[in-house]
Design a protein that fits this description.
alpha+beta; 40% helix; globular
Length: 139
């Protein structure tokens, strides 16, 4: 059964480039309710744990370095059909392939620095949300 929540992060490049407000605005204009939100920074160990599913991939080390290099904004979003609708809103991983009007088309600079993360399944949304937020921090 699908849930109505998803998890997102504004990645270090999105924060560094001053896009927090613009991205959050696109999220709320997309009909999502923000039910948890914080500015934080992943340690190397945090990034390794969060992206452990990619540990065997050749880009893992670069991903960990990138995600721990500066602050991120973590958020839990709520909306009917949250996972699919948010994946549509963020656009393709490669901003060159992203549809006009998507977050990545507007704010991403490359495949590696693509401004925002979005959960790809209900299961991962729950895991990723719990990684960043205690139950009392979700509204």
């Amino acid at each position: 059964m699908a849930t109505n929540r998803t998890f997102t992060m504004i990645k270090p490049d999105g924060v560094e480039n001053g896009h927090i407000g613009g991205i959050l605005n696109m999220i709320t204009e997309g009909g999502f309710k923000i039910v948890a939100l914080k500015l934080t920074q992943l340690t190397v160990a945090d990034a390794q744990a969060f992206y452990a599913v990619h540990a065997a991939r050749p880009f893992y080390g670069e991903l960990v370095d990138f995600m721990s290099r500066g602050p991120i904004v973590a958020a839990i979003l709520e909306k009917q059909n949250a996972i699919e609708d948010f994946r549509t809103l963020i656009g393709a991983t490669n901003p060159a392939d992203a549809t006009e009007g998507t977050i990545r088309k507007k704010y991403a600079t490359s495949i590696g620095e693509n401004a925002v993360h979005g959960s790809d399944s209900d299961e991962n949304a729950a895991i990723e949300s719990a990684f960043h937020f205690a139950g009392r921090d979700q509204f």
